[in-house]
Each structure stands twice: as structure tokens, then as C-alpha cells.
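New to this. Help decode both lines:
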Amino acid sequence: MLPSEGAAMSIEYFFGEHSFALLPFNEADEALECFAYPGYLPDRWMNGASIRFDAAPRASWVGHFLSGRESPNAVSFCCDHPDGVHALVIAGGIAYQVAPANPADWIELPIRPVMGGCASASANAVALFDYSRMLVLYADGDSWTSAAVSWDGLKNVRERNGVLFGDGWDAAENEPAPFEVDLRTRRTLGGAAPPSR
């Protein structure tokens, strides 16, 4: 759920023990070394999400992440990556992957706007979704983008034993279209999408 204006960023851990901590930014953190993203710009600030990273032996630092503006319903949250090395920061629908122990190790993920996410400890993966498809990130650093399972919007996304279930939208039939995305086999079942050209 998107936090209200001025609310603390939601921080989640899904994948066990970590060598880092993710903390909400507070005024005392202003004295720490900081970087702005995108760009890994030292001593800069971006309007969006601010997170404090603690990863020994590196000194604590703050990342300021530019927030997207594509949708007022895009999500903002921070969580661990299944690889145990990186963290994911989603700021107003823009997804960043960054290493708490090395702020220069970052990328902007190729999905935008992020409208939600779902983790699977059993598949050791996390899925971020936009209006119609999912980007799945795995512990070995691999990733996969699912086929479209909706014309416009994914709802009720939940995980069971490495499979994501939810409802897409079938515009042609004007009704929900249930789908399944198997994170292990990388197959989709059900859903609906516009015909390919």
C-alpha cells in the first residue's frame, strides 16, 4: 500500500538473514554520506524516497531515490532482494536495485510504474508488477518478465508455494480474468491481454 504523504517508507524483509539493515531516513541521518538516484550522485537529493543503509564494514549512508509520476496509485516500499546482496527501493513506481555495501552498485529496473509486488520465499524470488506483466528477480541474479496477464491492472495478487495468483482484466469481455504465474517454471496460465499484432 502506498504510504500517505509524509509517512515513513514501508520496509520489508522476506529472505532471511542479511549483512545489512534498511532504515527509514530521519533528520539525524542528514550528517551521513548521501547519494542521489538515478545517477549515483554524491551529496545530492532527489524528491522521492530516502533510505538509510547500514552494511558493515562500510559506514552508514543515505540514498535519495527519485519518485515516479506516472500513476498516483504506484507503490513506494523498500525490501531485501533474494540474492542477499542488494535491496530494492520502489519510489512512486520507479524500481531501483542497490547494494547497501556498495552504493555505486545500482541499476534502475526495467518495469515502470510498479503498481505492486509479491515475494516468494519458497521460490526465492520477488515479483514486481505494472499494469499487465511481472518482472521476477531471482536469488542467482537472473530475472524474467512474464507475458501480459491483463489488459489494465492486476488485483488480488498473492503467493502460494512458488505460484502467484491474481486477477487481471479482460477488456473484451468486461470482466476479471484469473491468472497464475509459476515462478519456478516461468509459465503463465489464464489472464487476458490484447491480441498481439
Remarks:
- The CA atoms of residues 37 and 65 lie 5 Å apart.
- The chain has a mean pLDDT of 92.
